[in-house]
């Protein structure tokens, strides 16, 4: 059971699109307004990653069992590793009254549309696949095989992101400041306006 709370915000985009950077900026500027839903994964931690902060690191046996028990909102497998968002992770954020932010892939987006969370869906678009490849190579965390898989996945994700109706907004991240400004404007229009509408309706009902 997922608790009631503010409408969640979903950020989706290929690895290297810059969505994590936009997310960090948002959480830093509005720490009291937004809370990040920490995903589960069966992959090992990368240097500097902490369990419970960047991911909940687990194993395939435990995660598969939890999914079968209905404890996950969405899950997917990439490069042999499982990723997913648990109901508990979303509830932990919503319990604080904050807007829950989720960083999920297109399979997760398809699944979350079948829940009653009614999230705001944002797709972060890279300038080009070539630029995406340059960013991923600069990270130096991929070998040629996983890099090719990521780029193949990115092409599918970009195609899905470009289809009308899949997302509420697509933000082109060819300039980080401009992309963040577009994200902030979208949030203020859709979340703050909704909060104001709800307050007005509540005040009217109480009169």
TrEMBL record:
One of its GO terms (molecular function) is ATP binding. GO terms for cellular component: cytosol. Pfam families: Guanylate_kin. SMART domains: GuKc (SM00072). Keywords: ATP-binding, Kinase, Nucleotide-binding, Transferase. Gene3D superfamilies: P-loop containing nucleotide triphosphate hydrolases (3.40.50.300). Its EC number is 2.7.4.8. InterPro entries: GK/Ca_channel_bsu, Guanylate_kin-like_dom, Guanylate_kinase, Guanylate_kinase_CS, P-loop_NTPase. Residues 6-188 form the Guanylate kinase-like domain. PANTHER family: GUANYLATE KINASE (PTHR23117:SF13), GUANYLATE KINASE-RELATED (PTHR23117). Belongs to the guanylate kinase family. This is guanylate kinase. It comes from Manduca sexta.
């Amino acid at each position: 059971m997922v608790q009631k709370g503010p409408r969640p915000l979903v950020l989706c985009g290929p690895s290297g699109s810059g969505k994590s950077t936009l997310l960090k900026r948002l959480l830093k500027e509005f720490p009291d307004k937004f809370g990040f839903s920490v995903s589960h994964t069966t992959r090992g931690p990368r240097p500097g990653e902490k369990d419970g902060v960047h991911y909940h690191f687990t194993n395939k046996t435990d995660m598969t069992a939890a999914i079968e028990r209905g404890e996950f909102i969405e899950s997917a497998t990439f490069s042999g590793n499982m990723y997913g968002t648990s109901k508990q992770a979303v509830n932990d954020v919503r319990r604080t009254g904050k807007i829950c932010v989720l960083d999920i892939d297109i399979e997760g987006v398809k699944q979350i549309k079948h829940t009653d969370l009614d999230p705001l869906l944002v797709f972060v678009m890279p300038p080009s696949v070539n630029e995406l490849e340059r960013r991923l190579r600069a990270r130096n965390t991929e070998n040629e095989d996983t890099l090719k898989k990521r780029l193949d996945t990115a092409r599918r994700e970009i195609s899905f992101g470009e289809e009308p109706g899949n997302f509420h907004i697509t933000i082109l991240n060819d300039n980080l400041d401009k992309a963040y400004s577009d994200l902030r404007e979208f949030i203020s229009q859709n979340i703050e306006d909704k909060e104001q509408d709800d307050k007005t309706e509540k005040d009217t009902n109480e009169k």
